[in-house]
What we know:
Blueprint (H helix, E strand, L loop, with lengths): L2 H27 L9 E10 L2 E12 L3 H31 L8 H17 L4 H62 L5 H17 L3 E4 L5 E4 L5 E3 L5 E5 L7 E5 L8 E3 L5 H36 L9 E3 L7 H5 L5 E7 L5 E8 L4 E4 L2 E5 L5 H9 L3 E6 L2 E6 L4 E6 L12 H5 L5 E3 L17 E3 L1 E7 L5 E8 L6 H8 L10 E5 L5 E5 L6 E7 L2 E2 L6 H5 L3 H4 L6 E3 L1 H5 L27 H7 L5 E4 L8 E4 H41 L3 H36 L1
Antiparallel strand pairs: 1-2, 3-4, 4-5, 6-7, 7-8, 9-15, 10-11, 10-16, 11-12, 12-13, 14-15, 17-25, 18-24, 19-20, 19-23, 21-22, 26-27
Helix pairs in contact: 1-16, 2-4, 2-5, 2-6, 2-15, 3-4, 3-14, 4-5, 4-6, 6-14, 6-15
Amino acid sequence: xxxxxxxxxxxxxxxxxxxxxxxxxxxxxxxxxxxxxxxxxxxxxxxxxxxxxxxxxxxxxxxxxxxxxxxxxxxxxxxxxxxxxxxxxxxxxxxxxxxxxxxxxxxxxxxxxxxxxxxxxxxxxxxxxxxxxxxxxxxxxxxxxxxxxxxxxxxxxxxxxxxxxxxxxxxxxxxxxxxxxxxxxxxxxxxxxxxxxxxxxxxxxxxxxxxxxxxxxxxxxxxxxxxxxxxxxxxxxxxxxxxxxxxxxxxxxxxxxxxxxxxxxxxxxxxxxxxxxxxxxxxxxxxxxxxxxxxxxxxxxxxxxxxxxxxxxxxxxxxxxxxxxxxxxxxxxxxxxxxxxxxxxxxxxxxxxxxxxxxxxxxxxxxxxxxxxxxxxxxxxxxxxxxxxxxxxxxxxxxxxxxxxxxxxxxxxxxxxxxxxxxxxxxxxxxxxxxxxxxxxxxxxxxxxxxxxxxxxxxxxxxxxxxxxxxxxxxxxxxxxxxxxxxxxxxxxxxxxxxxxxxxxxxxxxxxxxxxxxxxxxxxxxxxxxxxxxxxxxxxxxxxxxxxxxxxxxxxxxxxxxxxxxxxxxxxxxxxxxxxxxxxxxxxxxxxxxxxxxxxxxxxxxxxxxxxxxxxxxxxxxxxxxxxxxxxxxxxxxxxxxxxxxxxxxxxxxxxxxxxxxxxxxxxxxxxxxxxxxxxxxxxxxxxxxxxxxxxxxxxxxx
Length: 703
């Protein structure tokens, strides 16, 4: 081997050792730098005619493990999702209060029944009446507050999703831009690890927002794809958009850098954005829906007892609730018997109208009266009043009035009570309701498939989404002109222009409409918009039947105490009409009668049917029992979410620890490397010195 070859070999060794020393120095200097990945050098032998002629630095690389990196990114995504869900459910649980405390939401319902129980001992007491109304108002106010707060949490989630999506787009742009810098450095043989560390940090941040797949590029840098394989960065940055709606499920789309001009649906299964979408589209909506169902049924049972009773003296006017129906549709379907009594200030019946819905007849003061049909019921009832009372129907509400200072009381027959959709005549129309509502919950219309649907115009836009929250399609359904409720169902369930490919709308025996997915993979439904109208100025399909989460999840804030009773507590129905008293005989309504108050006190123990709400299945139980189950369900949800968060954080911490042990700087190892490269440098230097000495000797011999 020539001296020049020896010199070249020694020089390459010295340069390699010098590079190693520089890399080791960088590692030691950045031992506490967050996001710094330990650098290593890749060396290979330089050969000439099969002989070693030195050492070559092939590349300066980061000490990464692809599999650990992937595991770390996935764990970070799962942890972020679980944290967001746990925080949201914990906030919701705090809204309801400690179920074991005296100030929790559910304890306020018990306070109502306790107040009515006290009032039945002294039904004439103005103080006890006022206290009872106050307890009802507190319960309804809390329901409204919690519903409103849950809605605000949903809006906050919307805002955070939009902000996170903006950050995702920024990260994708930066990651894609760094690919160019990394490739340029590698082609030039320069150290690209600085840019790679920055890019790795950006990918780590991205993974906390949404789960992605990351693969290395041949010339350096990375390609970022969605879980479905859509290219997000690497060969151009994609743009993600959050498609939000105030009434329907929000979803993500992506505009690919080198793809179609039409946005592509983007499904993600983890990350903070996924957690926020789960909270916004599912968890909060479900809890608010169940709260609305609970408040609706509690109000229903209190009103059921109230409509079976009367104030003393009877009020001169009974104003019903807006049923959303016309007079004929409202009367159609009633069975059994009920009685309308006009009483004087002493509670003595002055006129009595007994209505037999099965026979279609009325009797007046025990004598035969006019026959009726649903079409002429209001006219015939006005006739039966004989000028002593009046009947009106406006805006979907029935109104009964006594004339000449007479009061109005309604009571069902003891053996064959009137019934429609599980409610008596007075209860169905809400004539003596203590609790009023601006909505139509619990959406049990009493309509049958054969009844005219009554919707004259407008369209419904229904959004169908998959289990991951991705939009499948928006379906626009026109309200069929004329026809029956069955025709409306057929339009909604059409496979061509409705939801028939994905599910079915059905009508139960009480006239409540529900949607059920018919696919192996669950499909959820929400209403983007609804311009349908029943009659002139009437409710839409979604309002009347409670279709879609936007309608159902807001009903908890629509209840309030009857304004008339709030202003005049003597109108509270604490007595019961005695139908055994003849017209003009003894008082049928007696001062001091507390049977109505007792029934109100026991209304929480009345077994009723709860519809499916949120993720709660249909149930048959008392309101008090449902309150206990609902309270427990909220706590279980929050505890389960917290447990999942802790588990996800533990996994993420363990994986990060393993990744750090692989990528991080170990001072002991670096000191060994430092010693090794120093010795290698010294050895190369000695070889150069030896070569120089040989040159000097040879030069001296020549002289």
